[in-house]
Design goal:
Elements (H helix, E strand, L loop, with lengths): L2 H28 L9 H63 L5 H8 L5 H9 L2 H4 L2 H35 L4 H4 L20 H4 L2
Helix pairs in contact: 1-2, 2-3, 2-4, 2-6, 4-6
């Protein structure tokens, strides 16, 4: 954690301690007869209670932030899964469209194989661009747009998810939460990563 951030967090803590101290001084002044001043003992007690109050408030605020980020991460992960499922359904429709249309082509086996490998809006659009009948079909164009919109939604959700994960991981390693991180079993959350592992030459036999 950067020294500047630590300094800021310490200043925030001291501010809450000061506010707590003032609060307890006010409480004691209410219960102290008006003709008497607050004794040094009560002032010391007010400072101790103010320190505890400031620390407690700081931890409560930080803990609430952690829980809020956890909920955001869970929600965003759920959104990614929803969009992924929708992508699969839309791409299945794209493959069905290409398969049905390609049945009219001479080289059926080759073209159908290509059609069934459609995995993105760009691949489907390239296929459509080569055939005027498909290109002029409003329903096909609508399907392409839906696939694009869903791809954008998936990409944005993954970006937001990783941003929230970054904020969460930073927060649990920040002062003062870092002091009690082990006590509350706060572990880093993994970033969302694509499984882009390339198949080896050995598996391909080349």
């Amino acid at each position: 954690m950067k020294k500047d951030n630590i300094t800021i967090e310490i200043l925030k803590l001291l501010l809450w301690i000061f506010c707590g101290w003032i609060l307890w001084l006010f409480v004691f002044s209410v219960f102290t007869p008006s003709e008497e001043d607050i004794s040094d003992l009560l002032s010391t007690i007010a400072f101790i209670l103010g320190t505890l109050t400031g620390i407690i408030i700081t931890f409560i605020l930080k803990y609430n932030n952690i829980n809020n980020l956890k909920q955001k991460i869970k929600k965003q992960y759920s959104n990614i899964n929803v969009f992924d499922k929708k992508s699969k359904k839309l791409l299945e429709k794209a493959n069905k469209v290409s398969d049905k249309y390609m049945k009219h082509e001479k080289d059926i086996q080759t073209t159908i194989a290509k059609g069934r490998n459609i995995t993105s809006s760009s691949e489907f659009q390239i296929l459509v661009e080569n055939y005027p009948d498909l290109k002029s079909n409003e329903n096909v164009i609508q399907l392409i747009n839906q696939i694009k919109e869903n791809e954008d939604a998936v990409a944005n959700s993954k970006v937001i998810y990783n941003e929230n994960v970054s904020n969460y991981n930073t927060l649990i390693h920040s002062f003062p939460i870092s002091i009690v991180r082990g006590l509350f079993r706060l572990e880093d959350i993994d970033y969302y990563e694509e499984n882009d592992e390339i198949i080896s030459d050995e598996k391909l036999g080349i």
